[in-house]
């Protein structure tokens, strides 16, 4: 383990985070040593992904066996170390804001975090695919690059995207549209959240990626002339992606989409609909996306847009985004 990975000098800069104590660092080291005894190359993503999958399948094949909590935690630590190695400046701290303090990996500025121990433990409840760990490492490293830091192997992340006319870049943060607001565009109200990592219970990087890509797709749809947006839901089981549309009134169709998602048994899901954002006046247009994993609060994001105007309504104009995407907050779990 390199000294800068868990050095007490690397202070957490955000509320709810603190540097690891020497005892906590020692505990992580003991978990790393446990994995190294398996002769796994803990610096090789493919080797670690193989070990994670084999450990899960071995446990799943033993009906009635208790979850090997210590082993899962040890695997979470080496997965987190791989994220640290691929996100320059990222480091381990202790997250104290949740119901139980847990080690997490944060970006250099402390404003984005991932929870590898919690995330890998959640997979023991819903399943581990052969490439889950490698996809997680790539997505988590991209998420921590919120300040434009370079990451490695980002292109190797599993595709969590809906069908669309163009392929967006990997969603490391909120997708941004650079169109300047027009004079009649309302300013976006502040919600206090700048990135998904600011949320009280951030979803996993894969779920964040799924939600942000769905937001990009929803905005593309309305800017392409689909106004209002036809509600859609998307599920991902770690291997396959399924998309379903729900025509009709946006509020009623969103409820139908949530019911469809709940029955899917997926590892992650999103629901997207035409709605309003906090502080909007009646008649304001926005696309809203809700994303969550099993049993975890959803992430709600949105983006306002101005629909097209015809010459009969004054000066004709094409549809355009209004302002920037925003994180609205969190809702009930979708799954």
Q: Radius of gyration, Cα only, in angstroms?
A: 21 Å
CATH architectural arrangement of the largest domain: Up-down Bundle
Spans of 5+ residues with little confidence (pLDDT < 50)? 1-13, 146-173, 176-189
Structural class: alpha+beta
The first-to-last residue Cα distance is 37 Å
Please list the strands of the largest sheet in the order they lie side by side. Answer: 6-5-7-8-9-10
**Number of domains in the coordinates?**
2
Subunit arrangement of the protein: single chain
The helix/strand series, from N terminus to C terminus, equals: EHHHEEEHHHEEHEEEE
Looking at CATH, which topology of the largest domain would you report? Four Helix Bundle (Hemerythrin (Met), subunit A)
Give the strand content.
Answer: 15-25%
Level of helix content?
Answer: 25-40%
- Average pLDDT confidence is 78
- Biggest sheet, in brief? 6 strands, antiparallel
Tally of individual helices: 7
> According to CATH, what is the class of the largest domain?
Mainly Alpha
The coarse overall form would be elongated
Give the beta-strand count.
10
């Amino acid at each position: 383990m390199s000294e800068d990975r868990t050095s007490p000098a690397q202070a957490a800069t955000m509320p709810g985070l603190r540097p690891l104590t020497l005892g906590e660092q020692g505990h992580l080291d003991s978990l790393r040593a446990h994995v190294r005894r398996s002769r796994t190359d803990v610096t090789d993503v493919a080797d670690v992904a193989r070990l994670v999958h084999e450990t899960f399948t071995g446990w799943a094949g033993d009906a009635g066996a208790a979850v090997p909590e210590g082993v899962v935690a040890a695997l979470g630590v080496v997965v987190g170390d791989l994220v640290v190695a691929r996100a320059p400046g990222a480091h381990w701290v202790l997250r104290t804001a949740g119901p139980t303090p847990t080690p997490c990996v944060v970006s250099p500025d402390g404003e984005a975090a991932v929870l590898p121990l919690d995330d890998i433990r959640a997979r023991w409840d819903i399943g581990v695919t052969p490439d889950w760990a490698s996809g997680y490492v790539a997505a988590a490293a991209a998420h921590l690059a919120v300040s434009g830091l370079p990451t490695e192997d980002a292109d190797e992340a599993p595709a969590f995207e809906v069908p669309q006319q163009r392929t967006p870049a990997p969603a490391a943060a909120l997708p941004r549209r650079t169109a300047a607001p027009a004079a009649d565009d309302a300013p976006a109200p502040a919600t206090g959240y700048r990135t998904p990592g600011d949320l009280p219970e951030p979803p996993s990087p894969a779920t964040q990626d799924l939600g942000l890509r769905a937001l990009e797709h929803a905005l593309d749809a309305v800017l392409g002339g689909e106004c209002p947006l036809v509600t859609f839901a998307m599920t991902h089981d770690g291997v396959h992606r399924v998309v379903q549309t729900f025509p009709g009134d946006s509020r009623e169709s969103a409820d139908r989409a949530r019911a469809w998602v709940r029955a899917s048994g997926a590892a992650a899901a999103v629901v997207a609909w035409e709605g309003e954002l906090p502080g909007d006046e009646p008649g304001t247009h926005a696309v809203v996306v809700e994303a969550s994993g099993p049993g975890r609060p959803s992430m709600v994001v949105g983006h306002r847009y101005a629909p097209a105007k015809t010459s009969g309504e004054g000066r004709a104009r094409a549809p355009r985004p209004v302002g920037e995407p925003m994180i609205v907050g969190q809702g009930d779990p979708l799954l």
